[in-house]
Amino acid sequence: MTQPRLKARLRRAERTRVLRALALVLPLGVFLLLVFFAPIGDMLFRSVHDPEMATTLPETAAALREWDGIGAPPAPVTAALIRELPQTFSERKLAGVAQRLNHDISGFRSLILSTGRQLDATPESPDAGPADPAARLAAIDERWEDHAYWAALRRASFNFTDFYLLAALDLRRDSADRITAVAPEEAIFVTILGRTIEIAATVTVLCLLLGYPLAYVIATAPGGTSNLLMILVLLPFWTSLLVRTSAWVVLLQNEGVINGLLLASGLVDKPMQLIFNRFGVYVAMTHVLLPFMILPLYSVMQTINPATMRAAASLGAPPPIAFLRVYLPQSLPGIGAGGLLVFILAIGYYITPALVGGANDQMISYFIAFYTTRTVNWGLAAALATLLLAATGVLYSVYVRIAGTAGVRLG
Amino acid sequence: MRAGREAKSPPSPAQPHGAGRWPRRILVAYVALVLLFLIAPILAIVPLSFNGGSFLTYPLDGLSLRWYAEVLTTEKWLRALTNSVIIAVPATALATILGTLAAVGLSHSRLRGKAVITGLLISPMIVPVIITAVGMYFFFAPLGLVNSYSGLILAHAALGAPFVFITVSATLSTFDNSLIRAAASLGAPPLTAFFRVTMPLIAPGLISGGLFAFATSFDEVIVVLFIGGPGQRTLPREIFDGIREHVTPAITAVATLLILFATALMATMEALRRRNERLAGQRKEP
User: Fold this and answer.
1) How many domains does chain A have?
2) Count of domains for chain B
3) Residue A295 and residue A215: Cα distance in Å, rounded?
4) A255 to chain B: which residues are within 8 Å by CB?
């Protein structure tokens, strides 16, 4: 008889514990939801949300959604456009739609604005008879006879779109709604994505080449030396990113320290270009990210028993073989964790390439910022951010499998 | 340079024979170069800040404190320092309170989905800051949180909280929960037990998490670029613009002060870490 009651009491006690845990987690959870997850969710939504047409030219958009997109636009579409366009133009509400359409077909902005202006300036006289709306549009601008413009209008009429996500991959829908590659001269994003991966991968390999031997020496050196070496790794880690970046500018610029030494020693007779190019990006990013490689490597190497190497040697393995067959395999988790961490951090880098790179060294983050603030194309910025976030998420889940949820080893 | 000399001393535990000294020497030389690469840029910038002339190159044109005098008397730099502190202090406090509560809640709990919750709570640390910044730029504008201290404080608290959460969680993982039961059996209410027993023991983790959060805010520039206005120009923001236009010796003076600050931060963290290790070691011994 007592057993079920005990069970119930245990269950209740457990429930209280769970509730208390949740109550303590809740404040941070709610805070992050409002300040962090909501803004990111909002941004992801922007990459597929396309409300301009539907809200500014609602009747036209509704008529366009009814159309199957084949052949000439049906009469309800042209009639609605002729009705809504001049009114919206006179209310000065056309700019958003014009910009949205211009993202699809360059030059659409001026077409839609000038058509709106002319329709507004010459209202249809009642005695002119029921002029064909399509013919009237064609008379204003012959581009209205081109199916591509109507297809673009139709693509913009839905509330949701894959337009920006496709554009971020150099793809678009043609007038028959099939996914095709954009014109070669407009294709820039695949190059940028490739460049981002190339830079991040190169920096990861450089960090591994520089960091592995150093982590090994720190892990195998006696206590005092090991501590001192660790401090030399941690000082840059704790130093402001901006300070380290400005240090590299001071060292590498044309009138900088390294060029000064090179000129003074007579090795070169004019300054070498060491910055605002790929070399500068590699040097500065490797410097900034190297501690993130060394720390995970060190924490794995610390656990490797040196006796295993001695055992290998006593069994006759020459040092290189012993290293390759005994030490390296045991350090693989550190290589995986450090490599992924550096790669994850590197693909999202913005400040360092922006300050020490040239025009051809900018990574995806730069273009997210560019489309947000310079040329306002928030849908495209959001789509690029979505790609970067997805890549980061996938890599991070792999990282968690290797290194556990505790995340980055701090300090 | 100093690094190289120190690195030569360690004996090689992994080197069984006296015969193979050369591989070890090559390794030590290589590692010395890597350390030089890590430290030299930071050390190279320090003497330049004492340069009497205004060129950022060696040899120095006499020693002087003029660039420090310039920084410490210029409205721009003083304003930037004030702004950085105005944002970092409340952001750190918020991050420390929220991060600690969450870490205490999740520690020793058998909550289902704990891994997922942990992953979500530390995600501000993983998501590229440019994404966070752009998201906030869109989202905060209609709420009146751009061009304001409050927006930046909230944003920096979100970026700093994961660090507190992780360091406090790490300290709590070595925390013996029977201490709480002992306190309870002696009649301490849960809150008293928390402040009198848990807090003193997790204090090192809490302080280092707070320092991490402070350093994060103090060094953050991307969110400031997007949602900060002309009234919220922080130190990193001024340095960013300085590097973009022209690196002046005044920037090297600011940089030197920040390196000093980083050194103090690192020394505090090392002291906390050692104290924690010592305490953990004591607790493990019978």
Assistant:
1) 3
2) 2
3) 8
4) 55-57
